[in-house]
Amino acid sequence: MNSQKRIIESNTFMIILIGLIVLTLISWIIGFAAQDINVSIIGLWMLHMQNPVLWIMDMIPVLFYFLGRKVMRFYSQSLNDFDKQMEWLEQRNVANSRFAKEIGSGNYQVEFDVTDEALMDKSLLAMRDNLLENSKRESEQLWISKGKDIVSEILRLHTDLEELSVDTLTGIIKYVNFLQGALYFYDEDSEKLRNVATYAYNRRKYINQEFSIGQGLIGQCAYEMDYIYRTDVPNDYMTITSGVLGDQKPASLLIVPLIADEKLQGVIEFASLDEKIPEVTIKFMRELGEIIARTFFNLRVNKKTENLLIEAQHLSEELRGNEEQLRKATQEELYRTNGQLELKVKEVEQAQRKLNSLLENASEIISIFDRSLRQTYESPSVKKIFGYTPEEVLGGKVAKYTGESAKKQQELLRKLLDNPSETITIECSCIRKNGTSMILEITGRNLIGDPAIGGIILNAVDRTERKRAEKEERLRNKMQSLSENSLDIILRLSLQGDFFYANPVVEDYLHISAKDLRNKNLSDVLMDESLKTYFFETIGKIKSYSNKINTVVEIPVRLGEKTTNRMMNFMAIPEINEGELETILFVGHDITEAKRIEMEIKEKNKKIEDSINYAERIQTSIIPDTKLIKRILPESFIFYRPRDIVSGDFPWFMHNEHYAYIAAVDCTGHGVPGALLSFVGYFTLNNVIGQNNEYSAGSICDKLHDGVRATLKQGTEYARGQDGMDIALVKIDIKTNKIEFAGAHRPLYLLRDGEIIEYKGDRKAIGGILPGRKGEEPFVTHQIQMKKGDKIFFFSDGLPDQLGSPEQKKYSPRRIREQILDHQDYNMSEFSKLFENDFYEWKADFKQTDDVLLIGIGF
Questions:
Q1: Full-model pTM
Q2: How far apart, in whole angstroms, are the C-alpha atoms of residue 348 and residue 365?
Q3: I need a labelling partner for 766 at 20 to 30 A (CA). Which of 79, 259, 435, 658 fits?
Q4: How far is the C-alpha of 609 from the C-alpha of 627, rounded, in Å?
Q5: What is the pLDDT of residues 707-748, one digit of tens each?
């Protein structure tokens, strides 16, 4: 059986080997035919040199033969060892069972002899290790939970930010065994991180520090909103001071942002003498950071709420003072009214008919309740005031008070039972039978001991009109106070032009006192004729349409001995009472200064616009002429749409008798800043090609990188700017159609035989400050031999980043690839129209987010 399997496997091996040799010969034949090379030893060598991949294909049969023979021998030996292995496995099963039993009893430290050949041994050992690992994870989680409980308890005990910060920082350091720490609170008003607590700092200069976003490690942590763990601590970092340790620089740092609701609340920093901070400690601090951030957020909200409550309390105190005065006045009036009522009750005993007549026409409702709070009497005036008869009220067919008002009445009755000597007044709202609302003032007295009454008497008076009048008077007084202190002209005129009111400001502009204007007609007042004409015309318009009218009027104003014109914005407001136009309120606001500022702004904007337009003419002059490009590269197009008047993106083209150079350059920013940087890129590229036209595409990018950094002085000690540019650069051998590509963050798409091949640019930009002290790798040059029908596309990030579509998505590189594949038979002119139409259709009503540049070349 085993010999038959060996024969079959040997035959299969030989068939595959022969197939690989045949496949290699076919690839040689195809190569000879495709590249027009003579079939010979020399031709074979040339074919391999031009297509290095053939060396790999040649080695495949050789490697397969040697590896296959080795596998066959190994397989044969495996069959012989199989029986021995089975016997050995039985022995191992007994040992494994013993070991599994020990693990099951919880003894994880049991010794176990593991052999390399036993998978079960390794599995059991792995199981034991997993159980140990789970036990360790549970311990770490328990440690994290305990620490979070301790800090949460500290957070619950404080409402003051300073005390909370100090106790929280101290509690964390003691629990985690850090030696130094600081806590920074993010102030949204100043947009800075302010130090609110420190622990174990040896110098005062590190206390009460402030950091801007992005400044230092603290600012960087806040900017990235992610933790920073450093073991390479800067030399100038503060030291840890101790009586035992002396002054030592920390060996490791952990900086954690405090984030709540995706908003920065602060940053917490820790230092340790240990060279490594455990992962569980980092995890603990990241989870704890969210809890501390939430507490900071709540303290901010509570502080704002506290301020609002203080303002509300001040208003409530003012209202209580007003209510107390009103209550006293009402009590005095009700006391007098009740005294009169007592006299009238006595008269009822003598003349019932006279009393009934008085009660029916009374302005208040009288109700009497017995000791069990059951109503025993309702005066006939309820019909006049409330709309229901006394019988309907006493029979329970209708309730005068519902909801909150009913509760107030019941509370009033219970208080009068408990305090028979008091007179209590409340206000309630109710609905008349006709559906209108009214406000009743109810005064109650306990007269159960009076034999004439024998109950609790409630006097309810309709205070609806009085409340309305008080509110109107309060608003009128408030309006008058505002008018007297207003800086605007405020006038009230009748429809005949009579002045009913004028505030003191009118004298500053018309040189007529407010007292002299009142009760005079507009025709009798000496003022500028244009202003008088405005008042008469506006009164006529409002009498016809009753709408607000806003008008700008220029009036002469005397300032000392000089007269100057002031621009006044008059708002004419019709005042209507019960559907009838009564008066017109004129409010005049001086907008002279605003108009002057507006004109200055317009003049400055025009100068800026003229400068930008001039910059556009300069930038347009350096952009390559498409006719020249098409003469050198007939099958090509450039889709170029700046976002603003001037652009940070620009196409660059240069050529000589051997090579054509073309690039899509994307400078940092857009508008004027981007345009300035584009000049640096343009002239630097020209200088590089002028020095040596044999530079590869990658070398050109290296030279451009060095030139930009030198021009912007980014290699100096005090350099701060990270300005630079992204680029996709193509160097084309005009005679052989061989191209070189190099890119900085920008790719090149090659459309060949219905597929897109992407050549990615380097993950670094042109220009900028070097990261750290490490050297930079040169830009990579991709060499591509173009074939007939090939098309290449390269672009800036403006097109893929453009927002559009109903879903507000980005255009994306994927959509660019799909458009190329879906229309791969298009020529370059058709591609140009395709992308232009698709871009504007995608963008629709959305604002263009960046400069757009797309270049396509066909071969």
A1: 0.41
A2: 16
A3: 658
A4: 30
A5: 999 888 887 777 667 789 999 999 999 999 999 999 999 999
